[in-house]
Each structure stands twice: as C-alpha cells, then as structure tokens.
Specification:
88 residues, alpha+beta, two-stranded antiparallel sheet, flat
Length: 88
Amino acid sequence: MKKMKKMFILLSVVALVGCQTTDSPDVGDLNLHQPSTLRLKAGTRVQTEEGVYRAQTNEVWHSDKRFRTLERKVYNQIYATFFRGVPK
C-alpha cells in the first residue's frame, strides 16, 4: 500500500511538472502598468526608492521595452547602411 501511495505521488508530480510551459512570457505582458514613455518638465520632482529625483531639463524616459525597440531599430539602420542589408 505504501508503495502505491508513493507511486501515485510521484506520478502526480510528474504530471503537474509536465503540464508546465517552457515558453518565456511575452515582453508586452510584463509592462501592464508601465507607460512606454515618461515626459518630465524641468524641475519636476519624482519620488524614487533612492530618494527624490529632480529633472534638470525637459526629459523623456523610455520603458525598457521601448528602449530596446529603438536600440534595435538604430542597429538595423547602421547595419543596412554599412553592410547593405538587414541582419537575420
């Protein structure tokens, strides 16, 4: 009886682990409440974990997703300009 109980637990664990997905979450899903850009006027104070930040000039802050998209676009333009094509 103990052997069957252990086997049932083992099979249950294997079944549960086997049902998990190995796909990474879509980056778009990770930014549910994050704007793609944040525009601050000079002098605006923002409370951060490290303390109060004061914008010195009019600033535009980009979310990580937007920054990576812009970065990739620039890299592709540079590659196309110097190597006559878009990288694969």
